[in-house]
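Changelog note: in this version the structure field was regenerated for every chain. One regenerated record is shown below for reference.
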Amino acid sequence: MTPPPYVPGHDLLSGRTAVITAAAGAGIGGATARRFLEEGARIVIGDAHTRRLTESAAALAAEFGPDRVAGLPCDVTDEAQVEALLALAEERHGRLDIVVNNAGLGGTAELVEMTDAQWGKVIDVTLNGTFRCTRAALRRMRTSGGGVIVNNASVIGWRAQRGQAHYAAAKAGVMALTRCAALEAADHGVRINAVAPSLAMHPHLVKVTTPELLAELTAKEAFGRYAEPWEVANVIVFLAGDYASYMTGETVSVSSQHA
Protein backbone atom coordinates (compact mmCIF):
# COMPACT_ATOMS: atom_id res chain seq x y z
CA MET A 1 0.00 0.00 0.00
CA THR A 2 1.36 3.42 -0.94
CA PRO A 3 1.44 6.34 1.50
CA PRO A 4 -1.35 8.94 1.33
CA PRO A 5 -0.70 12.37 -0.21
CA TYR A 6 1.33 14.79 1.87
CA VAL A 7 -0.99 16.96 3.97
CA PRO A 8 -0.55 20.74 3.58
CA GLY A 9 -0.18 23.00 6.59
CA HIS A 10 -3.14 24.77 8.21
CA ASP A 11 -1.38 27.28 10.51
CA LEU A 12 -2.13 25.11 13.55
CA LEU A 13 1.00 26.37 15.36
CA SER A 14 1.11 29.92 14.05
CA GLY A 15 3.27 32.28 16.09
CA ARG A 16 4.56 29.64 18.51
CA THR A 17 8.15 28.85 19.34
CA ALA A 18 9.20 25.22 19.41
CA VAL A 19 12.38 23.37 20.31
CA ILE A 20 12.93 19.98 18.68
CA THR A 21 15.77 17.66 19.66
CA ALA A 22 17.50 15.26 17.26
CA ALA A 23 15.97 17.21 14.40
CA ALA A 24 18.71 16.98 11.77
CA GLY A 25 18.32 14.56 8.91
CA ALA A 26 15.48 12.62 7.37
CA GLY A 27 13.90 10.98 10.42
CA ILE A 28 10.98 11.90 12.64
CA GLY A 29 12.79 14.91 14.12
CA GLY A 30 13.55 16.41 10.73
CA ALA A 31 10.01 15.75 9.54
CA THR A 32 8.64 17.38 12.68
CA ALA A 33 10.79 20.47 12.15
CA ARG A 34 9.44 20.86 8.62
CA ARG A 35 5.83 20.22 9.65
CA PHE A 36 6.07 22.78 12.45
CA LEU A 37 7.33 25.39 10.02
CA GLU A 38 4.54 24.55 7.59
CA GLU A 39 2.11 25.04 10.47
CA GLY A 40 3.45 28.53 11.20
CA ALA A 41 5.82 27.89 14.10
CA ARG A 42 9.29 29.27 14.72
CA ILE A 43 11.75 26.53 15.55
CA VAL A 44 15.05 25.96 17.27
CA ILE A 45 16.47 22.55 16.41
CA GLY A 46 19.16 20.63 18.21
CA ASP A 47 21.17 17.56 17.30
CA ALA A 48 24.35 15.87 18.44
CA HIS A 49 25.60 15.67 14.84
CA THR A 50 26.91 19.17 14.19
CA ARG A 51 27.42 18.85 10.44
CA ARG A 52 23.96 17.45 9.77
CA LEU A 53 22.45 20.03 12.09
CA THR A 54 24.16 22.92 10.31
CA GLU A 55 23.06 21.64 6.91
CA SER A 56 19.47 21.02 8.03
CA ALA A 57 19.10 24.40 9.73
CA ALA A 58 20.55 26.21 6.70
CA ALA A 59 18.23 24.41 4.29
CA LEU A 60 15.14 25.12 6.38
CA ALA A 61 16.15 28.75 6.91
CA ALA A 62 16.59 29.21 3.15
CA GLU A 63 13.11 27.82 2.54
CA PHE A 64 11.14 29.29 5.43
CA GLY A 65 13.19 32.33 6.43
CA PRO A 66 16.18 32.80 8.76
CA ASP A 67 14.01 34.56 11.32
CA ARG A 68 12.04 31.35 11.85
CA VAL A 69 14.85 28.79 12.06
CA ALA A 70 17.81 28.43 14.39
CA GLY A 71 20.00 25.48 15.26
CA LEU A 72 22.38 24.63 18.08
CA PRO A 73 24.39 21.45 18.66
CA CYS A 74 22.86 19.59 21.57
CA ASP A 75 23.79 16.30 23.19
CA VAL A 76 20.87 15.50 25.50
CA THR A 77 23.19 13.64 27.88
CA ASP A 78 24.75 17.03 28.71
CA GLU A 79 22.53 19.21 30.90
CA ALA A 80 24.40 22.40 29.98
CA GLN A 81 23.75 21.81 26.28
CA VAL A 82 20.06 21.15 26.97
CA GLU A 83 19.80 24.40 28.91
CA ALA A 84 21.57 26.30 26.13
CA LEU A 85 19.18 24.97 23.50
CA LEU A 86 16.07 26.07 25.39
CA ALA A 87 17.66 29.39 26.31
CA LEU A 88 18.33 30.10 22.63
CA ALA A 89 14.62 29.81 21.87
CA GLU A 90 13.82 32.33 24.58
CA GLU A 91 16.58 34.67 23.48
CA ARG A 92 15.55 34.57 19.82
CA HIS A 93 11.79 34.75 20.29
CA GLY A 94 11.14 35.78 23.88
CA ARG A 95 9.22 32.63 24.74
CA LEU A 96 9.14 28.85 24.68
CA ASP A 97 5.81 27.26 23.78
CA ILE A 98 6.58 23.72 22.66
CA VAL A 99 9.34 21.19 23.25
CA VAL A 100 9.53 17.96 21.27
CA ASN A 101 11.83 15.40 22.88
CA ASN A 102 12.75 13.31 19.88
CA ALA A 103 16.29 12.28 20.80
CA GLY A 104 16.75 8.55 21.26
CA LEU A 105 19.30 5.83 20.67
CA GLY A 106 18.71 2.21 19.76
CA GLY A 107 20.84 -0.85 19.15
CA THR A 108 20.54 -4.62 19.04
CA ALA A 109 22.10 -6.99 21.55
CA GLU A 110 20.98 -10.15 23.30
CA LEU A 111 20.63 -9.46 27.01
CA VAL A 112 23.25 -12.00 28.13
CA GLU A 113 25.78 -10.41 25.79
CA MET A 114 24.81 -6.80 26.45
CA THR A 115 27.47 -4.75 28.21
CA ASP A 116 26.85 -2.17 30.89
CA ALA A 117 28.09 0.44 28.43
CA GLN A 118 25.55 -0.59 25.79
CA TRP A 119 22.73 -0.57 28.30
CA GLY A 120 23.81 2.68 29.89
CA LYS A 121 24.23 4.62 26.64
CA VAL A 122 20.76 3.75 25.36
CA ILE A 123 19.17 4.61 28.71
CA ASP A 124 21.14 7.85 29.05
CA VAL A 125 20.18 9.21 25.64
CA THR A 126 16.65 7.87 25.33
CA LEU A 127 15.26 8.03 28.86
CA ASN A 128 17.59 10.29 30.81
CA GLY A 129 17.81 12.72 27.89
CA THR A 130 14.02 12.98 27.77
CA PHE A 131 14.02 13.55 31.54
CA ARG A 132 16.63 16.32 31.29
CA CYS A 133 14.79 18.12 28.50
CA THR A 134 11.39 17.74 30.17
CA ARG A 135 12.72 19.04 33.46
CA ALA A 136 14.40 22.05 31.82
CA ALA A 137 11.31 22.84 29.75
CA LEU A 138 8.90 22.51 32.66
CA ARG A 139 10.98 24.81 34.84
CA ARG A 140 10.55 27.50 32.21
CA MET A 141 6.96 26.82 31.22
CA ARG A 142 5.52 26.77 34.71
CA THR A 143 6.61 30.39 35.18
CA SER A 144 5.72 31.60 31.70
CA GLY A 145 2.05 30.67 31.65
CA GLY A 146 2.00 27.21 30.11
CA GLY A 147 3.24 25.19 27.19
CA VAL A 148 3.33 21.77 25.60
CA ILE A 149 5.87 18.95 25.73
CA VAL A 150 5.68 16.00 23.35
CA ASN A 151 7.93 12.99 23.94
CA ASN A 152 8.86 10.38 21.36
CA ALA A 153 8.27 6.92 22.82
CA SER A 154 7.80 3.72 20.79
CA VAL A 155 5.42 0.79 20.53
CA ILE A 156 8.35 -1.29 21.74
CA GLY A 157 7.66 0.24 25.14
CA TRP A 158 4.53 -1.96 25.11
CA ARG A 159 5.54 -5.04 23.16
CA ALA A 160 8.58 -7.32 23.24
CA GLN A 161 11.30 -7.76 20.64
CA ARG A 162 14.45 -9.83 20.86
CA GLY A 163 17.67 -7.90 21.27
CA GLN A 164 15.87 -4.73 22.35
CA ALA A 165 15.75 -4.98 26.15
CA HIS A 166 17.63 -1.71 26.67
CA TYR A 167 15.62 0.24 24.09
CA ALA A 168 12.29 -1.21 25.24
CA ALA A 169 13.09 -0.39 28.87
CA ALA A 170 14.03 3.16 27.92
CA LYS A 171 10.88 3.74 25.86
CA ALA A 172 8.62 2.22 28.53
CA GLY A 173 10.34 4.62 30.91
CA VAL A 174 9.54 7.54 28.60
CA MET A 175 5.86 6.55 28.75
CA ALA A 176 5.90 6.39 32.55
CA LEU A 177 7.80 9.68 32.76
CA THR A 178 5.19 11.28 30.50
CA ARG A 179 2.31 10.13 32.72
CA CYS A 180 3.89 11.26 35.98
CA ALA A 181 5.27 14.56 34.70
CA ALA A 182 1.89 15.42 33.17
CA LEU A 183 0.23 15.37 36.60
CA GLU A 184 2.81 17.76 38.03
CA ALA A 185 2.70 19.99 34.96
CA ALA A 186 -1.08 20.35 34.85
CA ASP A 187 -1.07 22.75 37.80
CA HIS A 188 0.93 25.16 35.66
CA GLY A 189 -1.05 24.89 32.43
CA VAL A 190 1.48 22.60 30.75
CA ARG A 191 0.42 19.52 28.79
CA ILE A 192 2.78 16.55 28.35
CA ASN A 193 1.99 13.70 25.96
CA ALA A 194 3.93 11.16 23.91
CA VAL A 195 3.74 9.48 20.54
CA ALA A 196 4.63 5.81 20.08
CA PRO A 197 5.64 5.09 16.49
CA SER A 198 6.35 1.59 15.27
CA LEU A 199 8.28 1.57 12.01
CA ALA A 200 8.96 4.97 10.43
CA MET A 201 11.37 4.58 7.55
CA HIS A 202 14.42 6.78 7.07
CA PRO A 203 17.93 6.24 5.68
CA HIS A 204 19.64 5.66 9.04
CA LEU A 205 17.19 2.89 9.93
CA VAL A 206 18.03 1.09 6.71
CA LYS A 207 21.73 1.21 7.62
CA VAL A 208 21.31 -0.33 11.07
CA THR A 209 18.52 -2.85 10.41
CA THR A 210 18.68 -6.01 8.33
CA PRO A 211 16.37 -6.31 5.32
CA GLU A 212 14.89 -9.44 6.88
CA LEU A 213 13.91 -7.65 10.08
CA LEU A 214 12.50 -4.67 8.16
CA ALA A 215 10.38 -7.03 6.08
CA GLU A 216 9.16 -8.83 9.20
CA LEU A 217 8.23 -5.61 10.98
CA THR A 218 6.55 -4.16 7.90
CA ALA A 219 4.42 -7.28 7.50
CA LYS A 220 3.03 -6.78 11.00
CA GLU A 221 1.68 -3.32 10.20
CA ALA A 222 -2.06 -3.02 9.50
CA PHE A 223 -1.47 -1.07 6.28
CA GLY A 224 1.23 -3.46 5.14
CA ARG A 225 3.80 -0.67 4.92
CA TYR A 226 6.04 1.39 7.15
CA ALA A 227 5.06 4.90 8.21
CA GLU A 228 6.53 7.94 6.55
CA PRO A 229 8.27 10.15 9.15
CA TRP A 230 5.88 12.99 8.31
CA GLU A 231 2.92 10.80 9.27
CA VAL A 232 4.33 10.59 12.79
CA ALA A 233 5.09 14.32 12.70
CA ASN A 234 1.43 15.00 11.92
CA VAL A 235 0.43 13.39 15.22
CA ILE A 236 3.06 15.44 17.03
CA VAL A 237 1.57 18.57 15.46
CA PHE A 238 -1.85 17.53 16.76
CA LEU A 239 -0.57 16.98 20.30
CA ALA A 240 1.32 20.29 20.22
CA GLY A 241 -1.69 22.26 19.03
CA ASP A 242 -4.98 23.46 20.45
CA TYR A 243 -7.04 20.52 19.20
CA ALA A 244 -5.43 18.42 21.95
CA SER A 245 -6.16 20.97 24.70
CA TYR A 246 -7.63 18.41 27.11
CA MET A 247 -5.09 15.66 26.50
CA THR A 248 -2.25 15.13 28.92
CA GLY A 249 -0.34 12.13 30.22
CA GLU A 250 -1.27 10.12 27.14
CA THR A 251 0.87 7.99 24.83
CA VAL A 252 -0.64 7.86 21.34
CA SER A 253 0.24 4.86 19.22
CA VAL A 254 1.08 5.79 15.63
CA SER A 255 0.71 2.19 14.55
CA SER A 256 -1.65 -0.76 14.89
CA GLN A 257 0.84 -2.40 17.25
CA HIS A 258 -0.20 -1.15 20.64
CA ALA A 259 0.82 -4.45 22.16
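Spot check on this record: DSSP finds eight helices and seven strands in the chain. The radius of gyration is 17 Å.
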